[in-house]
UniProtKB/TrEMBL annotation:
Domain DprA winged helix: 301-354
Organism whose genome encodes this protein: Maledivibacter halophilus
Identification of the protein by name: DNA processing protein
Domain (Smf/DprA SLOG): residue spans on this chain: 79-287
Classification via PANTHER family: PROTEIN SMF
Length: 360
């Protein structure tokens, strides 16, 4: 038995979180002492619910821990604790750091260069497009996108990073064996292949409302800064911002329609000092990050040369009017119209009202 075994054991018990484990360490000095403590001593632990004490006693068996670890192994879930090399360095120094992390996929050193993109589950189509666009562009700078894999802004941000060929990390409010929402099963698979899905909650933990505010400290903790796209005045997104400010992280916000409920939170943040963001450069200039070299020929290998040329212009200038694309490339307007139509069919671009083109 070692420290990791004790943490796996305690974390697997419903009703024991990171704060309770800290209290155990203070009370018993070591978790090994808790493991070996008399039953009577466990029942004397201050403010410990009787049912939790019962669970501690019932599961205090090496066989229990061995079976749990075998289950993790069968599901290809890695288990990380603070003193291990793979545990994210940036999380080691935040207040109430996770005692244990379950992970599918992998976290790399380069993921320390990360921005969280968060916002409302009930976002507008504008918000969804903005989250996708910014995530995709940030990915082109080698920036990892952190979010929570929820409906709306979170999902759009993960998709943008992936479609931009970048890395992304999802922090769950459930056990890592539970995909929430279920409709994100394919997205979760893609994230695992190009980044990681992590959770501090044990296997089988359902996505209860109280889990999400707690996991938000991890989202901000993994990031250099947090970009809020859309959020209401009572949004859980603002809890993440509280954590970000406590952790000394940068806070960015997209201005929104003053008549739209999901913009009231972001507009309030701007009034309170968040940095107003209208383009990718507003974030990049804070960190002196240069765009990673990207070979357009390889990135869009399924496209014709003329299609690649048009995409290259859109990447640099978006949002851009279709007539300006024609002017820059010295192409007939009809030819550009035809190329844009093909790119829309191939799901590379989107035409907004007024014949404005953006990447999807």
């Amino acid at each position: 038995m070692n420290e990791k075994d004790y943490l796996i054991w305690l974390n697997s018990i419903h009703g024991i979180g990171y704060l309770t484990i800290e209290k155990f360490k203070e009370y018993f000095k070591t978790l090994e002492n808790l493991w070996n403590a008399p039953v009577s001593e466990i029942y004397k632990i201050p403010n410990l619910r009787r049912n939790v004490a019962d669970s501690i006693i019932k599961t205090r068996k090496e066989e229990y821990i061995r079976n749990y670890k075998e289950k993790l192994l069968s599901m290809k879930v890695q288990c990380l604790i603070k003193n291990e090399e793979l545990y994210p360095v940036v999380l080691k120094y935040i207040k109430a750091h996770p005692q244990i992390l379950y992970m599918k996929g992998n976290i790399k050193k380069e993921d320390e260069k990360a921005i969280a993109i968060i916002g409302s589950r009930k976002c507008t189509s504008y918000g969804r497009n903005i989250a996708y666009k910014f995530a995709r562009e940030l990915a082109s700078y080698g920036i990892t996108i952190i979010s929570g894999m929820a409906y709306g802004i979170d999902s759009a941000a993960h998709k943008g990073a992936l479609d931009g060929g970048g890395r992304t990390i999802a922090v769950l409010g459930s056990g890592i064996d539970i995909c929430y929402p279920k409709s994100n099963a394919n997205l979760m698979k893609r994230i695992i292949e190009s980044g990681a899905v992590i959770s501090e909650y044990p296997l089988g933990t359902q996505p209860r409302p109280g889990n999400f505010p707690r996991r938000n400290r991890i989202i901000s903790g993994l990031s250099m800064g947090v970009l809020v796209v859309e959020a209401g005045l009572k949004s859980g997104t603002l809890i993440t911002i509280d954590y970000a400010l406590e952790q000394g992280k940068d806070v960015f916000a997209i201005p929104g329609n003053i008549n739209c409920s999901v913009s009231k939170g972001t507009n309030k943040l701007l009034k309170e000092g968040a940095k107003l963001v209208t383009c990718i450069e507003d974030i990049i200039e804070e960190y002196n990050i240069e765009r990673e070299t990207c070979n357009i020929e390889n990135k869009y290998s399924d496209l014709s040369q003329s299609e690649k040329s048009v995409l290259k212009v859109i990447e640099k200038k978006q949002p851009i009017h279709i007539d300006l694309i024609s002017s820059i490339l010295h192409l007939d307007a009809g030819a550009v119209n035809g190329i844009i139509t093909v790119l829309e069919i191939k799901d590379y671009v989107e035409m907004l009202p007024g014949r404005i083109i953006i990447l999807k």
